[in-house]
Design brief:
Order of helices and strands: HHHHEHEEHEEHHHEE
Structural class: alpha+beta
CATH superfamily of the largest domain: Histidine kinase-like ATPase, C-terminal domain
Distance between the termini: 64 Å
Radius of gyration: 38 Å
CATH topology of the largest domain: Heat Shock Protein 90
Bound molecules: adenosine-5'-diphosphate
CATH class of the largest domain: Alpha Beta
Largest sheet: 7 strands, mixed
Number of helices: 9
CATH architecture of the largest domain: 2-Layer Sandwich
Number of strands: 7
Shape: elongated
Helix content: 55-70%
Number of domains: 3
Amino acid sequence: MFKNQTPQQLSAYIAATSALLMAALAVLCREFRVFNISWGSIGLLLLSVFTVVFLANFQFIRYYIFRRIKLIYKIIHRHKLPSDFKADKLDMSKNILANVEREVDEWAEQNDRDIEELERLATYRRRFIGDVSHELKTPIFNIQGFIHTLLDGAIHDPQVNMQYLQRAAKNVDRLQAIVEDLETINKLESGQMILDLREFDIHDLTDEVYADLEMRARERNIRLTYKEGAHQHFRVRADKESIRQVLINLVHNSIKYGKEGGVTKISFYDAESYILVEVSDNGIGIDPEHLKHVFDRFFRADKHRSREAGGTGLGLSIVKHIIEAHKQTINVRSTQGQGSTFGFTLEKA
Ligand code: ADP
């Protein structure tokens, strides 16, 4: 009955009960002539008892609640309580305890969410450090091996000395590539990368990327072209340099995992508010089981091929981060042995 009452109502109930009891006692005393008391005095007594008990209770409950609430607020609020947080400022006409209960529930829920997030971050950090050290170990181990072999005498062997030095140098390049990619991922994940959104022609940017990767494509005798009808020029709004990075990574992958003598094709599709850009190859394709992991950090379907091609396993992860930072989407379709298509959207200018 008293569960949802305000402190004011509670004090009134107690005061009314006390006043009625006193009045009943006074009436009984009058009836049995214990002492003579007029009806007017009984009325006065009723009023006085009600007022005194009400005020006493009201003050008691106010200070009692205030002390409890203060303690609870000190625990749940990390900041200092405001200086005007005083007992006489409590609004006793409201169900204060219900409000506090709600605030404590919200605080507990927020704490649960914080703990979950911290656990997720701790797992992520552990995995990240594990992945990074694992990735760095192989090139470091290789460099160490070649240098020690050279120091142990191979430096004087003209048959192998240059070869070992070149292999050591290749591993140093790999270390550098991993560190650079890690730096980019770190910037993207920590939100330090500020997008410089501008309007530009996506076809022109693709031409530039094709020109930059022409030599690499020629090494594998791969043609870099556009799909039929994809010669239209579209203006998009995005961070040009990060989209250049996206195109470089996708086209470079289409060369690395493309078929020798094959073809890389880019196409553009005009959707209502965005342009869909697709990069296709007719290379090795991706196993359906691996498809959902290709954007994961350090994921490689074929470790040997990726390392041979100087891959870090971070390229697609960077691509995904960049596209998501633009609030756009990226997807992949692939058939093993036939080729892959990576498609991403860009905001139309
Ligand atoms: P990597 O540096 O190994 O190329 P990425 O993050 O760019 O790393 O790609 C991850 C993995 O996805 C690659 O190791 C490869 O197995 C697969 N992959 C990426 N692009 C293609 C593609 N066009 N065709 C086939 N497999 C691909």
